[in-house]
Amino acid sequence: MKIMYATPSFPYPPDRGDRIRSHHLIKEMSRDHDIILVSFLRPGEERSIDAMRKYCRRIETIPFDGERAYIKSVFNVLSRRPQQMYAARSARLEESIGQVVKEEGPDIIHIHSLQFAHYAEPYDIPKVIDLVETMTLMYQRMLPHRRDALSYMYRLELAKVRRYECSGLKSFDRVLVMSEPIKDHLVDMGCDADISVVRVGVDTEYFRPEMKDADPDRIVFVGTMTFYQNVDGIVFFCREVLPLIRKEIPGVKLWVIGGNPPPSVEELSRQAGVELTGYVGDIRPYLNASSVYIAPIRIATGLHAKILEAMAMGLPVVATPQSCEGMGVVDGEHALLAATPGIFADKVAQLMKDKALKKKIAENGRLLVDNNYTSAHAAADLERVYKEII
Asked: How many other CB atoms are found less than 10 A from the CB of residue 27?
C-alpha cells in the first residue's frame, strides 16, 4: 500500500512521546509499504530529514513558525474548534498535502494527533487519525493542578476538545489510541467513531539490558520539559519525595534529563544531589549508570514510552499508578507503584537497598515489554487496522 503520513512534529529523533510513536510506526510499516511523509519542520531539524529517507520514499516539509502559531491560537480563543488546530493551520502545509494526494494517490492517509485532523477532511480516501493521547482527559486531569493565568484558556479549550473528540472525528475511518482505558474513555464520552488500540512500540534492539556497574545511589528521570505533565511530576518529586528518600539514602543522587527546562525545574538543581543534564541525544548511558527509574507523573493520559524504554533497558521503575495506566503493569511484579509521597519514597529506597527485588522488577519489566510493546507489536496492530479499512 501507499501511505501518506502527516505529522505536526518531524518524527526524528525519536526522543519524546509523539515522535517515538510516529517514528516507530513509519519505520515498521516501511518494510512492506510505500511511505510518504508530510510534516512541519522546526528550526535546527534540517539534518533530521536524512535519517527518515531510509523509510520514506518522499518527504515534504514545511517550516514551522512557533511565534506565528501562538498568535493564531490566541486570536482564535473563542472559536468553536480547538485552538491547537488553529495553531497548526498552514496554507503551505495544506497545499503540500493536496499536491501529494494528487500526485501520489495514496491508499491511506494517516494523521498524527488532533492538531492535524482538519487536513484530512477534504479527501474521500481511507483515513486514520492517531490521537496519541485524548486531549479531553489530559485537560481534565491537568486543570486541578494549574492555578496560573493560562488555566482559563485551558478550560475553554477543554470544552472545544471534548466536543471535537465526541463528534468531529467521525469522518475518519478509524481513530487510533494507545490503550484500552483511553478507548473506554472516548466511548463513555460519546465519541462517534470507530476506535482501535495500536500499542506503543519500543525498539528493543536499541533499548536492551547491558552489563553495567550502576551507581547504587543514582536515580533518573527522563521527560521533555516543554510538557507541563513532566514539569509538574519532577517538581512534585523533588519537593515532596526526594527529601524523604534522603532520610533513608543520604547520598541519593538524581539525574533530571530533558531539554528546555522552565525556571521551576532549573531551581531544582539547587537541591543537593540534583543534576539537570538538559537535552541528551542518547539516554542509554544515563539509564545504564542508574539504579532506579522514577516516573512521578501525576497528570497522565496515555502510555509513557519513556517508562517502557527504561523497562526495556532492565532498569527497575517506581511510578505513580496513573503513569502506568493501561500498560498491564502489576505492582510488585513489573514495577513498584506509589500514589503518595511517603509510599513513593519508601519504594524507591526499598529498591535501592534490596538487590533481589531490584533484579526481579528489572527482569519482569523487560519481559512485559518483550511480550507486549515491541515495535513489531505496534506494527501488527496498525497493519490489522489498515486491512480492515481498505
From this structure: 21
Same fold, 2-201+374-389 and 218-372: yes
In whole angstroms, give the CA distance from residue 130 to residue 385. 12
Q: Which residues of 228-255 are buried (b: 16+ CB within 10 A; e: fewer)?
A: bbbbbbbbbbbeebbebbbeebeebbbb
DSSP-H helix ranges across the chain: 17-29, 48-53, 66-75, 83-87, 91-104, 117-120, 135-142, 151-163, 180-189, 228-236, 242-248, 263-266, 284-288, 305-312, 341-353, 355-372, 375-389
- Give the chain's radius of gyration (CA, Å): 21
CATH number of the domain located at residue range(s) 2-201+374-389 in this protein: 3.40.50.2000
For residue range 140-195, what is the model confidence (pLDDT) as tens digits? 888 888 777 677 778 888 888 888 888 888 889 999 999 999 999 999 988 888 99
Arch. (CATH architecture) of 218-372:
3-Layer(aba) Sandwich (3.40)
pLDDT digits (tens, 9 = 90+) for 284-311: 999 999 999 999 999 887 778 999 999 9
337: DSSP letter? E
Instruction: Please give the grid coordinates belonging to residue 278.
Output: 538538559
Is the pLDDT at 283 greater than 70? The verdict is yes
Residue range 73-99: mean pLDDT, rounded = 83
The whole-angstrom separation of Cα 52 and Cα 9 is: 13
DSSP letter at 148 equals S
Joined grid coordinates for residue 58: 518522499
Q: Which three cell numbers stand for residue 258?
A: 530533558
Q: Say if residues 109 and 13 touch (Cβ distance below 8 Å).
A: no
Q: What are phi and psi of 281, to 5 degrees?
A: -70, -35
For residue 223, give the DSSP letter. -
Domains of the chain, by residue range, sit at 2-201+374-389, 218-372
How far is the C-alpha of 347 from the C-alpha of 352, rounded, in Å?
A: 9
